[in-house]
Write a structure and sequence with these properties.
Its EC number is 1.1.1.23. By secondary structure, this protein is of the alpha/beta class. The protein has helices spanning about 20-35, 40-50, 60-70, 75-90, 130-145, 160-170, 180-190, 205-215, 240-250, 265-280, 285-295, 305-315, 350-355, 390-405, 410-425, and strands at about 5, 100, 105-115, 115-120, 145-150, 175, 200, 220, 230-235, 260-265, 300, 320-325, 340-345, 380-385. The model has no long low-confidence stretch (mean pLDDT about 95).
């Protein structure tokens, strides 16, 4: 049963496993092997961990066609419409290069350019996430990334889930590899005979994927080291307990480590949600996973006021925050930390996961205190432009020299002084 606790006894600290020494050692071994051996190591680890012997890693045109034949037309239509919504939302994030010229003739500016090649990790195997393809690939495409490579673990039959392939096909992403785990991260980082290296790796995965991404950061960029999914619902007596319970379970079914928390000013709602969770849990196909999540990482926190509830929320800094208050808009300004904010009874978290348009790749484990959802900026790089005029160099050169000498960098100072001496002859 979901436990009910008073605000004074509720801890907002959550310790999430970041990998054992054994797991880290295994990841380092895989990374080194793929770096040294290329395809041979990737295929060997795929056989070892996925129990699949691959003839080739890259998805063929025939496999794409087969997926298109297998997928239900309703699902394909939903993928297309979701993709349109996601593209429209992310297109509004795009920024432009800029330049400014001063009266002295100095020009300053910023060039904004896309990354050339990125790798998308899409979870697979026992579960498949076409939505992850959409959420990771579309902002990259909006940014102007030319090359997108998708890696995803094969199923027991050695094939990629049709939904994943159809999502990639609809976006025009044809470079898909049947590879998962740390070996996929290694292949994207170092490159192999089949897989070209990338500039950045995005997308969630299991603990081995997360550890591998952490290890290769610096050789390539990464989006984040994602932890288990989280949801917090902030509610008062106006909330429907069936809605609240269903939304809590929508995250609990992801992973036994997922966290589902209700913060409420109403004890009657707390008790009603507790009962609803039990009833809805009993008929969930993924009951065992959701039950473990609710038991170990679920809670109902009863607070004295909405203000106290907001304080709890801001300390939790949740990945997903649903605000089911009588007037949710009135409290937006007081929400400081959350990955995605869902307002009102009809903004169920899955609306954001799949269809509305905002990205579902979100900061977890309290990192919403300083991190943002995946967005177009994640696929852009910025270069500063400086075209300094003779007038400004003569006017400010002595100041630059003073700063350089203050830091003990005489060669810096002399690089300016030689110009001043030459121009003042």
């Amino acid at each position: 049963m979901m436990k009910i606790v008073e605000a004074a006894n509720f801890s907002t600290r959550r310790d999430v496993e970041t990998g054992t020494k054994t797991q880290r050692a295994a990841v380092l071994e895989i990374l080194q092997a793929v770096k040294n051996e290329g395809d041979a190591a990737v295929l060997r680890f795929t056989e070892q961990f996925d129990r699949i012997t691959l003839d080739g890693m890259r998805v063929t045109e025939e496999e794409f066609r087969q997926a298109l034949d297998e997928i239900d037309s309703e699902v394909r239509d939903a993928i297309r419409e979701a993709a349109a919504n996601i593209r429209d939302y992310h297109s509004r994030q795009m920024r432009q290069s800029w330049m400014t010229t001063q009266e002295s003739g100095t020009m300053l500016g910023q060039l904004i350019r896309p990354l050339q090649r990125v790798g998308l990790y899409v979870p697979g195997g026992t579960a498949a996430y076409p939505s992850s393809v959409l959420m990771n690939a579309i902002p990259a495409q909006v940014a102007g990334v030319e090359e997108i490579a998708v890696v995803t673990p094969p199923g027991k039959d050695g094939a990629v889930n049709p939904g994943v392939l159809v999502a990639a096909y609809e976006l025009g992403v044809k470079e898909v590899y049947k590879v998962g785990g740390a070996q996929a991260i290694a292949a994207l980082t170092y490159g192999t005979e089949t897989i070209k290296p990338v500039d950045k790796i995005v997308g969630p995965g299991n603990i081995y994927v997360a550890l591998a991404k952490r290890e290769v950061f610096g050789l390539v960029d990464i989006d984040m080291v994602a932890g288990p999914s989280e949801i917090v619902v902030l509610a008062d007596s106006s909330a429907n307990p069936a809605y609240v319970a269903a939304d809590l379970l929508s995250q609990a079914e992801h992973d036994a480590m997922a966290s589902a928390v209700l913060v409420t000013t109403c004890r009657e709602l707390a008790q009603a949600v507790q009962q609803e969770v039990e009833q809805q849990l009993a008929v969930l196909p993924r009951k065992e996973i959701a039950e473990a999540s609710i038991r170990e990482h679920g809670a109902i926190c009863v607070v004295d006021s909405v203000e106290q509830g907001l304080d709890v929320v801001n300390r939790l800094a949740p990945e997903h925050l649903e605000v089911m208050l009588e007037d949710p808009m009135a409290h937006i300004g007081k929400i400081k930390n959350a990955g995605a904010i869902f307002l009102g009874p009809y903004s169920s978290e899955p609306v954001g996961d799949y269809f509305a348009g905002p990205n579902h790749v979100l900061p977890t484990n309290g990192t919403a205190r300083f991190s943002s959802p995946l967005n177009v900026d994640d696929f852009l790089k910025k270069s500063s432009l400086i075209s300094y005029s003779r007038q400004d160099l003569l006017a400010h050169g002595a100041k630059i020299i003073a700063l350089a000498r203050q830091e003990g960098l005489e060669a810096h100072a002399r690089a300016i002084q030689v110009r001043l001496d030459n121009e003042q002859k």
